[in-house]
Amino acid sequence: MRYELYYWPGIQGRGEFVRLALEDAGADYLDVARERGDEAIMPWFQGEYSGLPPFAPPFLKAGRTVLAQTALILAWLGPRLGLLPEGATARLQAQQLQLTISDLVVEIHDTHHPIAASLYYQDQLEAARQRAADFRRLRLPKFLGYFEGVLARGDGQHALAQHSYVDLSLFQLVTGLHYAFPRVMQRLQPQLPQLHALARRVSERPRIAAYLASPRRIAFNENGIFRHYAALDTRR
Questions:
Q1: How far is Cα 199 from Cα 194, in angstroms, rounded to an integer?
Q2: Are residues 26 and 124 located together in one domain of the fold?
Q3: HEC states along the chain?
Q4: Do 28 and 94 lie in a common domain?
Q5: How many domains is the chain built from?
Q6: d(CA 108, CA 226)
Q7: Is residue 231 part of a domain?
Q8: What is the pLDDT of residues 100-131, one digit of tens each?
Q9: Crossing angle of helices 193-204/140-153, nearest 10°?
Q10: Is 139 part of any domain?
Q11: pLDDT by residue (tens digit) across 162-175?
């Protein structure tokens, strides 16, 4: 099957979590908006297709199936791409972890847009400083400590019993945080040895390494979720 991934071109964003799974599995997929531009996305929100419309990208089309929401897409793709251990318990655990990752992604976004996504960062700078201070001091250590504990309670190599889409998402999370908050992550790194080891192993997987070295991997930038602003990244 050929998959069609719909996400905004020019940023990694939430679409990157899906893209990493497709790349790692060697799946045949088309990154639609990168090939055809934003105009390929908009008809889905203008009632030009039947069925339940997606609220926002990313969404995935596979034959007649159209799915939105990152965690749902990955839950559906996981067994089809061999990126999930067998069994109902493993599926539920993977969904739980991916949804927790999604919660953290929202909090990361809200450090630079704490008031409204419709406003520029510069229009909410003081609120962003306050939000980022709490994020650095409390929220980020709590989330990453949780994921470190998940690895420690397992085999120390994977979030679940074997390599899965959750490992790929944790790689994206750690990599993005090192871009957005390098000073904070440097401070926290000694407390997160297994999480960083997992990210390194994922980056060395042959298909992921090839993807990261290719033009398909868009660099982090200040239009995406993971943004680096010096005012938000301090050691305190």
A1: 9
A2: no
A3: CCEEEECCCCCCCCHHHHHHHHHHCCCCEEEHHHHHCHHHCHHHHCCCCCCCCCCCCCEEEECCEEEECHHHHHHHHHHHCCCCCCCHHHHHHHHHHHHHHHHHHHHHHHHHCCCCCCCCHHHHHHHHHHHHHHHHHHHHHHHHHHHHHHHHHCCCCCCCCCCCHHHHHHHHHHHHHHHHCHHHHHHHHHHCHHHHHHHHHHHHCHHHHHHHCCCCCCCCCCCCCCCCCHHHCCCC
A4: no
A5: 2
A6: 7
A7: no
A8: 999 999 999 999 999 999 999 999 999 999 99
A9: 70
A10: yes
A11: 999 999 999 999 99
Please state at what angle helix 165-180 crosses helix 15-24, rounded to 10 degrees: 130
**40 with 58, same domain?**
yes
| Tokens standing for residue 126 | 């003081």
65's tokens: 């199936």
